[in-house]
Amino acid sequence: MKKFLKILGIIFVGLILTIILGYYNFRYTAEDVVVKNNMTQDEYGWFVDVPNEQATIIMYQGALVDAKAYLPLAASIAEKGFDIYIMDSWFDLPIFGINQAQNIIDREQLQNVILMGHSLGGVVGSQVALSNSNIEGVVLLASYPAEGTDLSNSTMKVLSIVGNQDQVINRENYDNSEIRLPATTQKVVIDGGNHSQFGDYGFQKGDGIATISKEAQWQQVADEVCQMFSK
């Protein structure tokens, strides 16, 4: 029995080490991201603060992507007058931080909240928005609601943005998800944009080659968010 437990313990430790090594091998870290004076970090992630904000955006990161990698995008949007929180989930997986948006809303007593998510982060954000009366809109970046998340009868504003060079997103699932979105959903295709350039974490394996700069892609996202959600 002791020998069996010892073997079981060795297997368990090996499994944990495999998971940890796999995480660090496949994780996408932020590149040369500059942290500005209006950017702070706390237990939930990053916050980009602006005076006299129009609304607050809470963002869920993409799977295995360092939350810090979205600071340049957040900075572009913040220039339009939006406070932004970027959730930093355990193991960089937004499914492990699904309650973080509500924690921020409760802590800061927020109103007029917009949920934004990249890739898997958008899947999580859609699910959170469905059950939260404080959410006035959703921004999906290379993302779509899961099969069990039906926003079609919602009065929320939904903005869906995807790059035409994106080779990571499942196009069939993306197209099929349209029936789960409100009829008023604004769908935007960024000409030359890809999956990776919604953040600043380098090139994601399997993606298409962008024909515009990452800065241009961030600016187009910021412009679309401003156009839809500005007061």
Automatic annotation (TrEMBL):
Instruction: Please list every transmembrane segment annotated in the UniProt record, as residue ranges.
Output: 7-26
Do you know which InterPro entries this protein is assigned to?
Answer: AB_hydrolase_5, AB_hydrolase_fold
Task: Write down a Pfam family by its short name.
Answer: Abhydrolase_5
- Please name the GO terms that the record assigns under molecular function: hydrolase activity
What keywords would UniProt list here? Membrane, Transmembrane, Transmembrane helix
- The Alpha/beta hydrolase fold-5 domain covers 57-219
Q: What name has this protein been given in UniProt?
A: Lysophospholipase
Q: Print the organism lineage.
A: Bacteria, Bacillati, Bacillota, Bacilli, Lactobacillales
